[in-house]
Each structure stands twice: as C-alpha cells, then as structure tokens.
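User: Fold this; tokens only.

Assistant: Input:
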Amino acid sequence: MLALVCALAYMDRFVLSVLIEPIKHDLSLSDTQLGLLTGFAFAFFYAVFGIPIARLADKYNRPLIISVSVALWSAMTAACGMSVNFIQLLLARIGVGVGEAGCIPASHAMLGDLFPGKQKAFAIGIFQAGGTVGILAGLILGGLLANSVGWQMTFIFMGLPGLIVGLVVWLTVKDNRGLDSVSNPLINADNDKLNLIATIKHLLTQRTYRNLMLGLSMGAFGNYGIVQWLPSFLIRTHHMSLEEVGVLYGSVMGFGTLFGTLAGAFLAPKIIAKDQRWEVKWAACCFVIVIPIFIGSFLVANSTLALGLLFLGVFTLSTGTGPSFAAVQTVAGPKMKAMAVALTMLCMAILGQGFGPLVVGMVSDALVPQFGEQSLRYSLSISMIILAWGAIHLFKASSTIVKDSQSL
C-alpha cells in the first residue's frame, strides 16, 4: 500500500513535466516561469512543511498523516486543471507540495521500523520502485490524455484516484513501530522533551549525515533538471509529438528507474553485508558514471541513440536510490528516522528540485540568443557538472558511516 502511495505521489508530481509545452503555449509562459512551476513552487513548500509534519510522524499516527497528505495533494493536482493563468497554477502547485510533504518521511520511517538492519535498503528500494511506476504512469498517461482531452482535464483525471487511496490508507494501514531496538541516549525517557532544534542539531553533528544530505541534494539538482525538462527537450530538439514524448520518454524514464531501483534493492544488501561503506559509495560511483552518459544523450543528433543513452543513465543512477536512503536511517537512530528523511528531503527539495529545473530554465533563456531553440540541450549539459560535486560528498560520507553508525 505504501508503494502505491509513493506511485501516486510521483505521478502527480511529474505529470506537469510532460504538459509543459501545451501549458507554455496556452498561458504564454517563459522557461523561467515554467522552471518555477516545476521546481521552486513545489519544492520550497514541500520542504518547509516537511520538517514539522515529519516531527508529527515521529510522535503520532503515521497512517493518518499519510492518508491526509494523499487526499490534499490529489485535490490540489485536480485544482491545477482548473487554473487559467500562471498565478492560479502556481498556487495549485504549492498545494501539491504541501500535501506531498507528509508522504515520504512518514513512509520511510514506517519501513525503517518494519525492516531493521540491512533489510532497510531492500524495503526502501521496493518502496521507491513504486515511485518509478508513478513516474511511468504520469509521463505516459499524461502524454496520452493531454493529446486527447487537453492538459487541464489531464490534471483532473490524475488527481481523482488519490482521494480514494487516501481513504483506503486510513482504514487499512496500521502503525507498527518499536522493532528497531537501537539505543541512543537522546531518545529514551527524555524523547518527548527533545525539541525540533535539538533533533536537527543532533543529526547535523554527524559527518556522515551532513555529507549524505549535501551529496543527495546535488544529485537531486541534476536529476530533477533532467526529469522536468527532457520532454520539452525532445519536442524542441528531436521534434517529437506530445504523444510520442509521453510514450517513449515515459517508458525510458519509468522502466529505467524501475529496473534500476529493483536491481539496487536486490544487489545492495549482499554487497553492504560485506562492507557497510557501499551503502553510500554505490551512489557516489553512479554519480560519476552517469555524467558523460547524460551529456551524450543531450548532444547526439539521433533520437534513438539519445533515448538509449538516457535509459542507461537513468538505470545506473537509480540503482543507488535504496542504499543511499537506507544510509540516512542508518545514522539517524530509531526515533529520528522520519526527521532524518525529512531534513534530507528538505535539502534535496530546495537545492535539487527547487533550483534544478529553475536554473536549467534560466540558463536556457539566457542561451537563446546564441543557440535559439537548441538552448535547452546546452543548459541541460551544463547542469550535469553538479553531479561531480555530489559524488565528492558521498565518497566522504562512505568513509565515516561505519564509525558514525556504531556511535548510536
């Protein structure tokens, strides 16, 4: 059920990316405005509300928090379809961000309690695989629906299922916690007195956690820039139709992410059991490997080759998803799991999802005088440099994770 919730979250989050071009045409928006809609408008409020909601998830009923979150973001997704100008669409996207803020931290915390130790990487990998199915559904269904009923009705159709799922979660999912017996002096009898600031300070004192948070945020910058702008890139550079983009790009992103996440979920526990440093080092290596692959996919002239390289890059990058998020919980302690994930998601949301699409859009607008309609391909290529920065932080985290996890 949690994987289904994750699928709906990613479906409603990413359907906008395949609708960018018709929205740009109908509402006469610039790439910078579109970058704001796909990035910062969602990410800032997702991040701001994520911390207090995660705090509630560490103390109160997690399934209830998840069910309310699902209902809220689904209603706001439908509201996107009722927007007739930039401001209305901006406010609706803010609502989606607020709603989704309660989903991932609470879900990760529940999985961390249900699957202790090395099983966390597998469980979170399967959970994130639900998200990849959501991306697949959002891109493919979004493209097909937009081609037949328009972008506004597409938003409405995408939002309605979540209202039902939210009710099902509330009625069927139970809050099982307490399986993780790890001891921490900050979180025993005095846990109720542990305030928000103290929790954050405790997490940030760990070198591993700090580097994980920064490294994953750099990865999110590059990843969200790709996901949100590739449909427009394929339309402008390879002259694909909206329906073709929905099916081809949706398949490449969805199946590449799905197969990569599942491969990481099955392989990671075996490797991590031999050397815990690979819980982080895996993602660091993936960051380095995909830089030339993604840049190649943006610059080649052949659309088939571009999609093939894109699939390879997405698959490789996705194998590190489960292990890296499991590492966040490994150094967090039992009753700080939701907060640790939320703080990481806050940084990823603001630096990655907030600025990634926005900066790509701004650079694309700035390069229009030199490259015209092809400016987006060069903007995307430049954005990949940040993955190298992210890899440095992840390699640093891998060198300290054993010591920090043993100190809990």
